[in-house]
Amino acid sequence: MRALDAIALRGIRARGRHGVLPAERELGQEFVVDVTLFLDTAPAAAEDDLTRTVDYGELATRLSAVVAGKPVNLIETLAQKLADVCLSHERVEEVEVSVHKPAAPIPLPFDDVVVTIRRRRS
User: Fold this and answer.
1) What's the pTM?
2) How far apart are CA 61 and CA 98, in angstroms?
3) CA dihedral of residues 80, 82, 87, 90 (deg, nearest 10)
4) Pick from 39, 30, 49, 21: which is nearest to 100 by CA?
5) Residue 85's domain is classified under what CATH number?
6) 51 is in which domain, residue-wise?
7) Are the beta carbons of 87 and 114 closer than 8 angstroms?
8) What is the 3-state secondary structure (H, E, C) of the chain?
9) Positions marked active-site
10) 51-110 confidence digits (pLDDT tens)
11) Which residues contact 102 (CB under 8 A, 6 or more apart)?
């Protein structure tokens, strides 16, 4: 089997209301999503055909809608929902998803909170 190629989308920004604190649900905040899709891009390259790969513009729109959609308590849960969207594309074999919560309610100076998960098609 040939090694999988990677398509990465970095810095997808969307406002969501995820978190366990009431203020997070009420006010919302910006989340940043990075995804790396692992798939075989050779068929798309050989035929120069978008239908043989992932339309990353369409995928970014779907991921943004998940972030802006129904709130969850944990960014771990949000990351799983985003991974599920990526894996729903028939060509994606594996995905790595990072969810950044740069405005997390932490009472100390910090740069970012990031949860990263890696999932594979079962």
Assistant:
1) 0.95
2) 16
3) 160
4) 30
5) 3.30.1130.10
6) 5-120
7) no
8) CCCCEEEEEEEEEEEECCCCCHHHHHHCEEEEEEEEEEECCHHHHHHCCHHHCCCHHHHHHHHHHHHHCCCCCCHHHHHHHHHHHHHCCCCCCEEEEEEECCCCCCCCCCCCCEEEEEEECC
9) 101
10) 999 999 999 999 999 999 999 999 999 999 999 999 999 999 999 999 999 999 999 999
11) 30, 32, 111, 112, 113
CA 26, 32, 38, 41 torsion-angle sign: positive
User: Are the C-beta atoms of residues 54 and 92 closer than 8 Å to each other?
Assistant: yes
Residue with tokens 């894996």: 87
Nearest-angstrom CA–CA distance, 35 and 12: 9
* Contact of 14 with 33, CB cutoff 8 Å: yes
Say how far apart CA 48 and CA 58 lie, in whole Å. Answer: 18
Structurally, the chain folds into a number of domains equal to 1
Position 4, amino acid: L
Rounded CA separation 17/22 (Å): 9
Six token digits for residue 85: 């969207």
